[in-house]
Design brief:
heterodimer, A: alpha/beta, Rossmann fold, B: mainly alpha, MetI-like fold, 12 helices, globular, binds adenosine-5'-triphosphate, binds magnesium ion
């Protein structure tokens, strides 16, 4: 893996290890990550794929500040992470919108709580909602929206802070195929506009290739970087890219990389 | 309790699933009305038959008469409305003060681990004690006046409200907590904007139990030591063998309990509009 020179990468995982120790003696502790190294450049879109339970969410949660690394360091702009913060917007897989707030209130909550004036954030929030395709839904409650619309609100909620980093853990995992493609294109369009550095986790290798500059495949637990591919096709990309030679070749390479990790487990279990 | 009827009413009966659904022409509410009518008929027949000793089971007509008489002339020198009002006042004053203190205490205990560690064991010990067991203590320390009854009901209400508010604040989804953190909310902002509204559905569960118990306990307390209120009315009437008055009193207690629960359900539907969606 080519090591980016110090000071150039936006995000850096260096020798990160994560052990979940269990309180009960009957459950052994879990080593989720081991010697995990990854550098992400400014404004890069990087996706992680890998077998289930390999530590993808763990890596993202450490970067988000939700979990502490057991060893090693995660840095943003050269600063070690101490906790969650609005500089790193997070889009969750599950509905994490607040059901008692309207769409608009959900989106503005962060900026409002940080004391920005309403004249500043409200027009921005409305523009953002137009941009994610939710014009006219400002006054709706989350339960009145479809899953895809709720994810659009989550993205708007993260983007209103104008974060330099966007963390997305299987954000489109629960959506149907057509909606997912729409959301992927929406994400690329928003990236053109805001240029955040994006860490994106998915099980869908095609999704990873379609949106990313670079895709990482992880080993099974304890997770390390196993394979790294660069996607050359220029952005913005359209659906034609999905059937292209580059896409197909990368897809095969990544599927093999992930699948071989899964099957290592399966062989002894089959006998 | 009225609770059951009100909460199951909107649901579709599970028995009507599948191909039976098409054939079900008679709505469920017809069965409810039918059952009540049947009960009334049985009551009428029994109260007029010689199976039951005269005077022990008043007939429906005599209850209606008694009710009109009570409404006109009151009971033991007080208008009926005053008996109702005094019982309601005691129950609601105790209930409300329990809510005002219980909700913040419970939320704090659920949100702050240390506060929870302090409060939980005490509450866990007190909760299983039947509220009526405290009636003699309330009389002992506060006498037979209003204060003793209100303190007693405050205590009952506080107990259940606190427990539910605590559970609501403690069990709120980690995704909410994380979302709040990464939006940059402070701990206080998280408490007021996320934890409190997030706990509201559970708080309302507590309010409903507390309301039902407040009403039950006020009647129990009035049975023992009071000169007014519906509980006093029924126990006094029973001693004087005025059985229709006892029946009317009991029916009123039931109807008011139902009404209290119903109003709380209305408030809940308005406040916790996202519940169950
Ligand atoms: N809070 C926790 N406590 C204990 N163990 C945990 C915790 N979170 C994750 N783990 C364990 O760490 C390992 C990695 O989990 P993680 O959620 O990072 O996997 P993942 O790659 O995101 O999986 P998936 O693709 O299924 O989402 C798993 O074995 C999991 O059981
Ligand atoms: Mg995960």
């Amino acid at each position: 893996m080519p090591d980016a020179p110090v000071g150039q990468s936006k995000i850096s995982f260096a020798g990160v290890e994560k052990v979940y120790s269990s309180a009960s003696a009957r459950v052994t502790s879990t080593r989720a990550l081991e010697a995990f190294n990854l550098d992400i450049a400014r404004a890069e879109i990087l996706s992680i794929v890998g077998p289930t339970g390999c530590g993808k969410s763990t890596a993202l949660n450490i970067l988000a500040g939700f979990e502490l690394a057991s060893a090693g360091a995660v840095q943003v702009d050269g600063n070690v992470i101490v906790g969650p913060g609005p500089d790193r917007g997070v889009v969750f897989q599950q509905a994490s919108l607040f059901p008692w707030m309207t769409v608009l209130s959900n989106v503005v909550l962060g900026v409002k709580c940080r004391g920005l004036p309403r004249e500043d954030y409200e027009p921005r929030a409305r523009r953002l909602l137009v941009e994610v395709g939710l014009k006219g839904f400002e006054g709706h409650y989350p339960y009145q929206l479809s899953g895809g619309m709720q994810q659009r609100v989550q993205i708007a909620r993260a983007l209103i802070n104008e974060p330099e980093i966007l963390l997305m853990d299987e954000p489109f995992g629960a959506l149907d195929y057509q909606t997912r493609l729409l959301m992927q294109k929406l994400l690329l369009r928003l990236w053109e506009h805001f240029r955040p550095t994006i860490l994106f986790i998915t099980h869908d290798v095609g999704e990873a290739i379609f949106i990313s500059d670079r895709v990482i495949a992880m080993t099974k637990r304890p997770g390390r970087v196993k394979r790294e591919v660069r996607v050359q096709a220029p952005k913005p990309r359209d659906y034609e890219f999905i059937g292209s030679a580059e896409f197909t070749a990368l897809e095969r390479e990544l599927v093999m990389a992930v699948q071989s990790e899964v099957e290592v487990d399966e062989v002894p279990a089959a006998h | 309790m009225g609770d059951v009827a009100l909460q199951t009413a909107p649901k579709v009966a599970p028995s009507g699933a599948g191909d039976q659904r098409r054939e079900r022409r008679v709505p469920d509410v017809a069965f409810s009305i039918g059952a009540v009518l049947l009960l009334l008929v049985l009551w009428y027949v029994f109260s007029h038959s010689s199976l039951i000793k005269a005077g022990y089971l008043p007939s429906p007509e005599s209850l209606a008469e008694t009710f009109i008489d009570l409404a006109r002339n009151g009971y033991q020198g007080r208008p009926l409305s005053e008996h109702i009002a005094i019982s309601l006042f005691r129950a609601l004053a105790g209930f409300a003060s329990g809510v005002i203190v219980g909700v913040p205490v419970g939320l704090l205990a659920g949100y702050s681990r240390r506060a929870g560690a302090m409060i939980s064991p005490i509450m866990a010990f007190i909760r299983p004690i039947p509220p009526i067991a405290f009636i003699p203590m309330a009389v002992l320390y506060f006498g037979l006046g209003e204060l003793g009854k209100i303190v007693l009901i405050f205590f009952v209400s506080f107990n259940y409200v606190t427990a539910n508010a605590q559970a609501g604040a403690a069990n709120f989804p980690i995704a909410y907590r994380r979302a709040a953190q990464s939006l940059g909310l402070t701990r206080a902002q998280t408490f007021f904007r996320i934890v409190l509204p997030g706990a509201l559905p559970q708080i309302f569960t507590g309010l409903k139990v507390a309301m039902a118990l407040s009403w039950a306990v006020v009647v129990a307390a009035e049975l023992v030591g009071a000169q007014s209120g519906l509980g006093f009315m029924i126990s006094d009437a029973a001693l004087l063998f005025r059985i229709p008055v006892v029946y009317v009193g009991v029916a009123l207690i039931g109807a008011i309990g139902l009404l209290l629960n119903f109003s709380l359900n209305l408030v809940e539907a308005k406040v916790v509009h996202w519940k169950g969606r």
